[in-house]
Every structure is written in C-alpha cells, then in structure tokens.
## 1
Amino acid sequence: MRKTGVPPVWERLLDTADLLFYAEGIRAVGIDRVIADSGVSKSTMYVHYRTKEDLVEAYLRRRTDTWRAHVEAAARSSAEDPTDRALAVFDVFHEQLSAPHYRGCPFINAAAEYPHHEGIRQTIAYHRAWLQGLFPSLLEARAEPALAAALVQLIDGAVTAAHLDHDRHAAQTAKATARLLL
C-alpha cells in the first residue's frame, strides 16, 4: 500500500533519473546514484527497470511524450491559422532553449552517449518521427515535404546553437527564418 501523496516507486526512479541524467549526463550518473537519490532499494529498482538502459529508455520516452504534448497543445491553442501555429512552435522551443538550466537536447545527448544501443536508438527515432511529422500536421494543406524538412532543420539548428553557442535567442532567429519560408 502506498502513502497518499507519495509517487509510486517507478515514478520516483524516473523523476530522479530525469533530473540526474539531464543535468550531469547519462553515462556520468551510475545506477547506484539513481537508486540512492530516489530512496529506492536496488532490488525494487530492478523489478521496475531490468537495466540502466531500460531506465534510460523510459526517461527518454517520458521526455518526448511530455514535450510533444506540451508543444502541440501550445501551438494549436495559439492560433487557428496553420502558419501561425507552425510559427508558435518556435516560441515553445524558445522557452526551453533560453531557460537557464538548458543543457542541450536530451535526445542528441543520449545519441552521443549510446550510439549503438538499439532500444535507446529506437526511442530517439520515435522522438524524431514526431518532430518530422509535427509541421505537416500543423500546416495541413501547406505541408510540402521540403518545407516541413526545412522547418525541422531550423529547429535542429536552434537547438544546437542554444547549446553549443549559448545563444538564448536561437529559436527566435530560427522563427524569423521560418517566417520567410512560410
């Protein structure tokens, strides 16, 4: 029986992993640290996640599911016009990319740390498939493949510039370019 207000064990593990993996890097954080910081026993952790990589996959899956819901809701509620909805995506990314705690894209970071792990690569591909389908779904009839691909590349460039160049205005620069394309 669980105490009221206390998250389930799997969620505590995932919350702890999310904080540590994003802030410090996945490989830099050992599973023993996640277990200790979450206050969960090692045997309980392995009941929920057989390996650290299973926990990494769950962390990335939750990140993408949460992010996609946030981006889509914000874009769709911002405007009725498809072009304005597509431009609103850049505003949502701006919020994230300009945050003081921004440490790069968790999916790019995971891809660099786990270039050959099939499950992690599949989770990253799941995220990328959503991003590549985002603009066509928002633009509706205006969703030419080349335009959608260019908008995704603008997002990718903004994500990279925000992290590598510490450019907190990268998403707004990308939005200005997207406006020209649209």
## 2
Amino acid sequence: MRIWSIHPQHLDRQALIACWRETLLAQAVLAGRTKGYTAHPQLTRFRTLPSPGSAVGAYLTGLADEADHRGYHFDRTRIITPGTAEPILQVTDGQVAYEWGHLIAKLEQRSPDVWIRWREAAPEAHPIFEVVPGPIADWERPG
C-alpha cells in the first residue's frame, strides 16, 4: 500500500489509479469494514488524527480532483466522508524527498514521458499535507 504524500499531479496513470484503490482500502480499514491491513504502517499518520475518516476522505477528494483534471472518472460516491483537499496533516521534507526518489525511479521505467516531465522538478505535496523540515517518517519502510 502506498498512500503518496506527493501531489497526485506527479503520478502517472498507473500510480494514480493504484493510489485511489489503495486509499479506498485504507478508508475501509479505518472504518472497520475489513480485517486486512489493519497494522499497515501507512495508516499510522491518519490514525493519529481526531477524525481519521475525514482525513482519508480529504485525501481521496484530492485524488478524485486530479482524476477529473485528467478526464478520468473516479467514483466519488465511494468516499465515505468527502472533504476538502486542504492542509490537515504534516509531512516532512525528508519523507517527500524519499517518496520523490521512489516515484521518479518508477516513472523512468514505466512512464518515460511522465518521467521526462517531472525528473528536474521539485515535488509538491498532496494538498492535505503541510511540508515541514524533518527526516523520513518513522512509519516508512525504506527498501
């Protein structure tokens, strides 16, 4: 499961769709609708919030907004608690840099056109994140 801290505009088609599906799974886990993935480290940052479901809903809204921008259709009725994509969580610049390196490597192999567009760019964070100084997140599993 990869719930990217990076803005969905940077994701290729495959990553955007996978992120949508995986975040829907995360939403189901946080809502108690499934028994799988309950200990997944990517969920840690949402569980620390007073309203994890609303945060995931805001994250999914940001993905759906990007899908709309590209002319895709993500079924927004699947978002249990839709929200506005505005900063409600912090992410460290170290985490963003780690994810950016991970994404750029994937794009180079899988989507060269997208890689060319973003390889020299500075990444933006998903709209629900405020970037703050710091290392890779404790819940990240570098590998």
